[in-house]
Amino acid sequence: MSDGPQVVLEVPTPHGPARVRLHAADGPARGLLLLGHGAGGGVDAPDLVAATGAARRVGLHVGLVEQPYRVAGRRAPAPAGQLDASWLAVVAAVRPNGFAELPLVTGGRSSGARVACRTAAAAGAVAVLCLAFPVHPPGKPDKHRRAELDGVAVPVLVVQGERDAFGRPEPAPGRAVALLPGDHSLKADPVGVGRAVGDWLARLPLSPVPAPQR
After folding, report:
1. Where is the KANL3/Tex30 alpha/beta hydrolase-like domain (predicted)?
2. Mean pLDDT split into 10-residue runs, the chain, 214 residues
């Protein structure tokens, strides 16, 4: 595979077709990174673009996942249960397409980061990348979603804007937090996003997934 989206897959899910844009790693592949978009945005968000480039440079194939509601042209997000079920259907469909033996890292921005956290164990993810994790709705710190982050049992990187109105996660065992200039959009420092993501992915001890016993 060469530069740019090499394959665009349409994946059936229980809630309509999802779409995956696959980008090839630069050089030998160490793993596969699947990234989801935010609630009202798409996979062309600046932080997702920066993360994709960084991941490819350190040897990961990248799949940018568009949830069924976005493929259908809707901006209002589907309920959490539908998002999670569609995400896991995408994981199950993509892995056999030449990626079965590669370690899987999942992630996304904002709502997509929440989906990746909730489904990390079921997806078989070895690590989770969260861009602009929405800790709580703006102005409502009591309505926090920290349990979604705390429930992830594999390494996590959170890249967060210093002025994010959706809150700021704290570092924890197994969880690194990179604070960058800017707000929830993470538009202010795409170079910083790429550097944080690339450095973290480069340090992950990614090993091939053993082939199933026959």
Report:
1. 31-170
2. 68 98 95 96 96 98 98 94 98 93 97 98 98 94 93 98 96 98 97 98 87 53
